[in-house]
């Protein structure tokens, strides 16, 4: 009775809270500029019921298994796919099915709840009572494909992070989590595999606090049959109920118990659920003043706080994407337990596209937000030497029909090349002309599709906030920005500054492994080159270059598995007649001392039947400090190129006075391209140069020869001048070799720790940086450390009470070390033998270091 009375009193407060929430909502919407800010962008009404979410996790935490269940319960598939049988919807590449891992992120669209089940919502109903469109992206967990995850994170509005209930928070999870922090993506956590032996929910919750630096809000607790038996369901702290799944069923039938029924069914779960509800409300009150007011209105009775008030509070805390507060759900996807409440949580807690901050853009060296640009608030200073007439900001706003990011390119055997896009403003219509701001070409969007993993439905347009596919584009690559602009001149594109607009630019890390590709015959060479171009459009973290001396094609990538899979796709999927050599390591060359002379070269010869003549001077030295990027300095793969003009070449305002037919941008681009070509091959072993500072002096009075000084002639002059400077350095013994050094994090149990440390430091020449049960010490998180003793989690029934086993079975340890990459090739097999098959590791490039004499000799 007391509960009901206080509930009644609470509803009055809830109405009052509604006003506060409304007020707060207005405040929020003013704070986050939504996509519909400019007057001509009409939102699709369904945008509020759209969720663009990704599934992120360490390898083997159950991402694809969970995705399969979501597709099945939403009515999208008729049967549940299985990773082990190779019958999953999202892992549809042959290489993925053979290995049982996700290699490329797959996009799939479904409705939850299924369209026929949703009822008309009443006021105060949770959002999950009406059908929502969910665009779901299943991402890879393997460290070699980190770039694939980064690409997908850019376009997500929310994410579900899946943790393995046995292994807890793993190394790759921390890495992906911090990347999601960089993009401020709202996240919820699903603790999976609670049916397995050794699953420890309490330990996992504490690790979320200590390793991910967020405060876990436990929304569900596991239900063990009879308190000690198998995992059978979850206690729901938000709705004060318990959900039970039938063993061995497909998970569609769920038995629900309210508090009174639960008290008779399972008293221990009943009392734990009351504790969980109290802890959840108290945690939220610390982060959200609205809920605090509600709670006080309910006379501090946590049980009387309405479920919808808790859902709204969780949503407010999650929306900013800071990861300070993390709602946690429980389940076991493989046993079909806990997936439907997780999908309800996606509808209830994660944002729709209009609730996300505007995407950041860059135009030249300027950064800003898309809505500021479209409203004409961003003052773009056109480069003084740009000959094209820039348009006024207001005319730009009225004319941009749509702006989209191509986040993924896939070669489909039946449909050809498919370009996945996320539309950020306006809409992309069928047959509209799209200007590619990276490649400066115009293409037509002939067919628009909505993807269902490997199946597709034709649609007429893709509106802002939605994810779709354009079929048949010839040039677009992963990461390109596409602008739809009426009356666009196919050659010139839209007026400046729109023609160089970049949405959410991304840096591709330098590849460290490479392998030679040998076509089986000369006639096959062109075919192999064409296939490689396709592979590179799909995956910009692969690089292809041709060795000038041997004419060999070299394919470089982020890891052994990455290259292995590229080879499999080349030979099996694209049927190329070629073999791939052994995987090698990409070393670098560096300049050790400053050259004494300035090398002046005048290039003078015919290029393709045209006379070409141009000159310049070059000078090369080691790079000590990283210089800020300006219009004169360009950063390129760890090198810096500076273009200098004599003092007399500038007018009073500091603008370069160049001949009328040579703009500064043309000059800079040509000279930088020439220097780039020279730096790609060092004089000593043909490796690219690293940590070098090249200065190119160009004097219009002596180095410019009218119409003969074409861009090609300027590039050739710069290339020859830099090569001459490098050659002088080589003759004076000033060229050193550098090798990639990796940051390696190894997870293992206590017993094999000694053997691993000994192996790393003595046999592999590595430096062990830290041995820790918890890598939070090295974590680069800005959030303060969390006192884990204050975190609520239901006690683990199966964990032993002895203190030694507090950190889980066999006490997991983490070793962080820096090791030369050469020593890490094939390390996984060795690690497995050292740890009895239980150890895992992830590594990323830390930096390039100079080789010592003995190591150089050994190599």
UniProtKB/TrEMBL annotation:
Residues 48-354 form the Tr-type G domain. GO terms for molecular function: GTP binding; GTPase activity. Signal peptide: none annotated. It comes from the Eukaryota. The keyword Mitochondrion applies. Residues 119-128 have a biased composition (Basic and acidic residues). Its main location: mitochondrion. GTP binds at residues 57-64, 138-142, 192-195. One of its GO terms (biological process) is ribosome disassembly. GO terms for cellular component: mitochondrial matrix. It is found in: Mitochondrion. It holds the Pfam family GTP_EFTU. Keywords: GTP-binding, Mitochondrion, Nucleotide-binding, Protein biosynthesis. NCBIfam families: small_GTP (TIGR00231). Catalyzes the GTP-dependent ribosomal translocation step during translation elongation. During this step, the ribosome changes from the pre-translocational (PRE) to the post-translocational (POST) state as the newly formed A-site-bound peptidyl-tRNA and P-site-bound deacylated tRNA move to the P and E sites, respectively. Catalyzes the coordinated movement of the two tRNA molecules, the mRNA and conformational changes in the ribosome. Mitochondrial GTPase that mediates the disassembly of ribosomes from messenger RNA at the termination of mitochondrial protein biosynthesis. Not involved in the GTP-dependent ribosomal translocation step during translation elongation. Belongs to the TRAFAC class translation factor GTPase superfamily. Classic translation factor GTPase family. EF-G/EF-2 subfamily. HAMAP family: mEF_G_2. This is Ribosome-releasing factor 2, mitochondrial. It comes from Hyaloscypha variabilis (strain UAMH 11265 / GT02V1 / F). The lineage of its organism: Eukaryota, Fungi, Dikarya, Ascomycota, Pezizomycotina. The gene is MEF2.
């Amino acid at each position: 009775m007391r509960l009901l009375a206080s509930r009644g009193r609470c509803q009055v407060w809830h109405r009052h809270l509604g006003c506060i929430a409304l007020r707060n909502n207005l405040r929020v919407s003013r704070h986050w500029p939504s996509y519909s800010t400019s007057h001509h962008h009409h939102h699709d009404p369904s945008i509020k019921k759209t969720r663009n979410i990704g599934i992120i996790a360490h390898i083997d935490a159950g991402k694809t298994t969970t995705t399969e269940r979501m597709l099945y319960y939403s009515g999208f598939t008729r049967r549940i796919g299985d990773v082990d049988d190779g019958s999953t919807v999202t892992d549809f590449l042959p290489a993925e099915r053979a290995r049982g891992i996700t290699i490329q992120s797959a996009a799939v669209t479904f409705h939850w709840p299924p369209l026929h089940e949703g009822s008309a919502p009443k006021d105060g109903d949770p959002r999950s009572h009406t059908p929502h469109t969910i665009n779901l992206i299943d991402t890879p967990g393997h460290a070699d494909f980190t770039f694939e995850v980064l690409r997908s994170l850019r376009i997500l509005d929310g994410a579900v992070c899946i943790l393995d209930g046995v292994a807890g928070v793993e190394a790759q999870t921390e890495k992906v989590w911090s990347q999601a922090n960089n993009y401020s993506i709202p996240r919820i956590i699903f603790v999976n595999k609670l049916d397995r032996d050794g699953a420890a929910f309490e330990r996992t919750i504490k690790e979320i606090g200590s390793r991910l630096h967020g405060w876990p809000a436990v929304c569900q607790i596991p239900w063990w049959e009879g308190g000690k038996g198998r995992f059978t369901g979850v206690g729901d702290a938000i709705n004060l109920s318990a959900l039970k799944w039938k063993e061995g069923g497909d998970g569609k039938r769920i038995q629900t118990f309210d508090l009174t029924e639960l008290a008779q069914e399972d008293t221990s779960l009943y009392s734990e659920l009351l504790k969980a509800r109290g802890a959840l409300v108290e945690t939220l009150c610390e982060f959200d003043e609205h809920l605090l007011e509600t709670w006080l209105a309910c006379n501090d009775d946590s049980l009387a706080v309405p479920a919808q008030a808790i859902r709204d509070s969780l949503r407010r805390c999650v929306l900013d994407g800071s990861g300070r507060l993390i709602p946690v759900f429980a389940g076991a996807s493989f046993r079909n337990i806990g997936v439907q409440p997780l999908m309800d949580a996606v509808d209830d807690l994660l944002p729709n596209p209009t609730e996300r901050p505007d995407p950041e853009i860059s135009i030249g060296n300027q950064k800003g937000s898309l809505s500021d640009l479209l409203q004409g608030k961003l003052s773009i200073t056109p480069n003084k030497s740009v000959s094209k007439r820039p348009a006024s900001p207001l005319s730009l706003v009225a004319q941009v029909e749509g702006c989209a990011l191509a986040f993924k390119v896939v070669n489909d055997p039946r449909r050809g090349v498919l370009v996945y896009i996320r539309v950020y403003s306006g809409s992309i219509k069928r047959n509209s002309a799209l200007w590619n701001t990276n490649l400066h070409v115009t293409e037509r969007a002939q067919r628009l599709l909505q993807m269902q993993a490997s199946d597709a439905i034709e649609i007429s347009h893709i509106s802002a906030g939605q994810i779709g596919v354009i079929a048949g584009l010839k040039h677009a690559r992963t990461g390109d920005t596409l602008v739809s602009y009426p009356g666009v001149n196919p050659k010139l594109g839209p007026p400046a500054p729109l023609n160089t607009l970049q949405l959410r630019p991304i840096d591709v890390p330098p590849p460290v492994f490479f392998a030679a590709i040998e076509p089986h015959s000369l006639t096959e060479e062109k075919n192999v080159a064409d296939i490689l171009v396709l592979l590179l459009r799909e995956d910009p973290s692969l690089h292809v270059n041709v060795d000038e001396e041997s004419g060999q094609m070299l394919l470089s990538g982020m890891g052994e598995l990455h290259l292995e899979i590229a080879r499999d796709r080349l030979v099996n999927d694209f049927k190329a007649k070629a073999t791939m050599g052994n995987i090698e390591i990409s070393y670098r060359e560096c300049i050790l001392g400053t050259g004494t002379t300035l090398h002046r070269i005048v290039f003078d010869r015919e290029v393709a039947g045209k006379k070409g003549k141009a000159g310049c001077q070059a000078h090369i030295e080691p790079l000590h400090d990283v210089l800020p990027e300006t219009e004169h300095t360009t950063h390129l793969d760890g090198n810096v190129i500076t273009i200098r003009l004599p003092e007399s070449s500038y007018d009073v305002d500091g603008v370069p006075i160049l001949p009328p037919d040579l703009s500064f941008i043309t000059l800079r681009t040509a000279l930088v391209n020439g220097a780039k070509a020279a730096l790609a091959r060092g004089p000593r072993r043909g490796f690219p140069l690293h940590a070098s500072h090249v200065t190119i002096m160009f004097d219009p009075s002596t180095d410019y020869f009218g119409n003969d000084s074409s861009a090609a002639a300027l590039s050739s002059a710069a290339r020859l001048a830099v090569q001459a400077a490098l050659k002088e350095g080589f003759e004076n013994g000033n060229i050193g070799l550098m090798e990639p050094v990796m940051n390696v994090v190894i997870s293992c149990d206590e017993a094999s720790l000694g053997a691993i440390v000994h192996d790393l430091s003595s046999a592999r020449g590595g430096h062990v940086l830290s041995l820790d049960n918890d890598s939070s010490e090295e974590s680069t998180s800005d959030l303060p450390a969390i006192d884990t003793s204050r975190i609520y989690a239901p006690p683990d029934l199966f964990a032993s009470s002895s203190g030694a086993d507090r950190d889980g079975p066999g006490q997991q340890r983490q070793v962080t070390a820096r090791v030369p990459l050469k020593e890490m090739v094939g390390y996984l097999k060795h690690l497995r033998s050292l740890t009895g098959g239980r150890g895992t590791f992830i590594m990323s490039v830390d930096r390039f270091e100079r080789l010592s004499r003995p190591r150089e000799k050994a190599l």
